[in-house]
Amino acid sequence: MSGIDISAYLARLGLPAAPPSAGALAALHAAHVERVPFETLDRPPDIDPRRSLTRIVGQGRGGVCYHLNGAFHLLLRELGYRVGMHAAGVQSGYNPNPAGANGTHNVLTVSGLPAPGNPGGRWILDVGSGEGFHRPLPLAPGTYTQGPFTYRVRPSEATPGGWRVDYDRLESCSGVDFTLEEATTEQFAATFDRLADQEMSIFFVYGWVKRHHATGFDELIGCQLSAVGPAGRTTRTLTTAEDYLAALSQIFGLTLPHLTDEERHGIWERFHHIWTTRDFRKDMFPAGNRRHRPQGDRNRELSPQ
Predict the structure, then answer these.
(1) Contact between residue 207 and residue 267 where contact means Cβ atoms under 8 Å apart
(2) How high is the pLDDT of residue 94?
(3) Which of 48, 88, 92, 229 has its CB 3.0 to 4.6 Å from that of 105, i.e. a possible disulfide?
(4) Angstrom distance (rounded) from CA 142 to CA 187
(5) 115-148 tens-digit pLDDT
C-alpha cells in the first residue's frame, strides 16, 4: 500500500528513517508505545487504518488496539518490514481464564530479523494495549526481561497452534494469546463496533488513556491518574480542568491541537461529570459479574481490562 506520509509518522514518533533491522524495529516499537497512547476520549466511527493514520499523525491522537496496531502495521510495511497482523485476546487480571485468540485484541509479528538472543528472527509486537512489553519480544519460548518487567513467551493453551505472552505481575492484565493465522483490519471491524457499543463501552464512558514506557505505564480513568512502576501504583484524583488537560498533554502527549479551547474543556467537563456522578466500580463490575482479584496485587486496583 502506498501513499503513506512516512516522514510525518516518523516525526510523530521522534525518529529518523532507517532501513529494517532488529534495532530499528525495537526503537520504533518503544517510541510508538511511549508517544501514541491507548485512548478513548471519543468513539471513532471505524478502524480503517488510513483514517487511523490521520487520527494519529494529523491530529496527534491515539486509539484502541485496532487503530494503533493497524496504523503501525501500515508504517512497518511501508518501511520494508515483513509484518503480519493476528487475532488475539487479552486475559484480564480479574479473569482466571485466558480469553484465547477471540479477536477482541490484535497483535503484530515481524519476521526475517535475526539478532543476538533471537536467531530465528521472528518478533512479537503490540503497540495497542497501553501496557505490556516496551520493545518487541522474540517469537520463541523463553523468559525475557525488559527493565524491571519480566515476560514469558510460550505456546498457548487456549489457542491451539497459537502463542501466549504472560505479562509481568506488576501489570493489570495477565497476558495475551494470539494465533499465527494472518488477519486484516477489516476482520476486526464488527468486533470493534460491538465492543465499543456494548461490552467495553465503559472505556468510552469514562475516557481511558494509557501509555507505557521503559519502567512502567501511566493510566488515566475518568479523573483518576495512576503511575505504575517497580514500586507499585501511585494514584491521585484530578480536580481541575487545568490539571486534567496538563496530564493529557504532559504525560500522554495529547495536546489536542485540532480542538478549540472550549472543546478541550468540554472533554474535561464530560468526564468530570461522569466521574463525580457515577460509581466506577459498579459500572466496571455489575452485580453478579464481579471477578476475583488476585490477593496481594495492588496494581490491579482499577484495571480496565
Answers:
(1) yes
(2) 78
(3) 88
(4) 30
(5) 999 999 999 999 999 989 999 999 999 999 999 9
Span 51-80, pLDDT tens digits: 999 999 999 999 999 999 999 999 999 999
> In this structure, what C-alpha cell is assigned to residue 59?
491530529
Domains (ranges, CATH) in the chain? 191-286 (3.30.2140.10)
- Three cell numbers, residue 98: 485466558
The answer, as to whether pTM is greater than 0.85, is yes
8 A C-beta contact, residue 4 and residue 76? no
